[in-house]
Amino acid sequence: MVSTRGSTAVSTAADLACWAVGHRPSADDLALADRALLDTVAVALASHAEPVHRVTAPLSEAARWAVAAHVLDFDDLHMPTTTHISSVCVSAALATGSGGPGYLAGAGVMARVGTLLGWRHYAAGWHATTTTGALAAAATGASAHGLDEDGTARALALAVPAAGGVQRAFGTDAKSLQVGLAVEAGLRAADLAAAGAGADTGAVDTWLTLLGGEPGPVSDDGPAVPDGLAVKIHPCCYALQRPIAAAASLRDQVDPATVDRIVVRALAGTTTPLIHHRPRTGLQGKFSLEYAVAAALLDEHAGFATFTDEAVLRPEAQRLLARVEVDLVPGGDWLLAGETEVDVHGSDGVRRAVLDLPPGSPRRPPTGAQLDRKLVDCLAGLDVSPADIDWSGAADLLRRLLPRPA
């Protein structure tokens, strides 16, 4: 192996490969993989009518599934790394037939690479799901091929050329397509490594440094996915889950028609991906703090119907979002740093909500009722029940129920 760490004589790729090949999933790891499968496949199936499916013909099957899993922005999130682990790793595992163990190999690599990149990588504007996702898919593919540590390390290095993606894509088709491209590239890298392709594994260290990360040893103990996964309650950017929950708690106390002013206070870092301030489409609304707060006061539940073009363009929503003022305090090194405060000023005074953890976050897990509602909403109109979604049959469900690109 080529070293970029002075006297250690070990590359980050070698460390990651050692973990991926040597990890033996615990019962908790496998339970997390099963939950991720159910959540991700349900969300992917819910996307069956999304326009993006019309343009995915050039992509591989695995890439198309990743696009489907991510386009609604309803997929789970690894909070410490701000990465959508399961849209990448469930798609790669289903495409390769590697099941829960393959998912966990990729998910563990994705969490560890994301940790090395850190918050500054995301805050700089990178789409961390795609930068880390290419290497994660390579790890899942390597697991499916049964590659040893050397082969897995080469697969990771061969994924580096495609490990990119930026937040400027948020609110457009390119966001989900970037995830699909990362999955496709990672699995191709594993195929190349299995065929005997050589690579300088120190490329992973160089890539990490160029992207603002710090190459170094990775954690080889504890769960496959440290700190677990956050489950979304609303189909939009995770940075909106807390503001929506805070504003929604005031819905029964205010009349939106009489609202004069809404002030949202938060740490600046927690709003990093919220780049659309006057959205005109449903996709843009998924990354708009102003719209999300307005919609939370208008809609009984911020669900699929909230994030359509028609909903965003409602006169009452446009009127209300124009009254939102965002007061950002410097700081915040992850999406749930500090608290979110929402003050609603109306004719009868001011109503205030302050929230630290939204429903669905790892330290405030979703209730059974919340999960059931999500699954019912995702599978509505489809001849599928949650019991039908397992590692042996999920790929066939996706093939049968997602649109076939022309």
UniProtKB/TrEMBL annotation:
Domain MmgE/PrpD C-terminal: 234-381
Pfam families (UniProt xref): MmgE_PrpD_C (PF19305), MmgE_PrpD_N (PF03972)
MF terms (GO), sorted A to Z: lyase activity
Gene3D superfamilies: 2-methylcitrate dehydratase PrpD
Domain MmgE/PrpD N-terminal: 57-201
Signal peptide segment: none
SUPFAM superfamilies xref list: 2-methylcitrate dehydratase PrpD
UniProt record similarity statement: Belongs to the PrpD family.
Protein known as: 2-methylcitrate dehydratase
Organism: Nocardioides iriomotensis
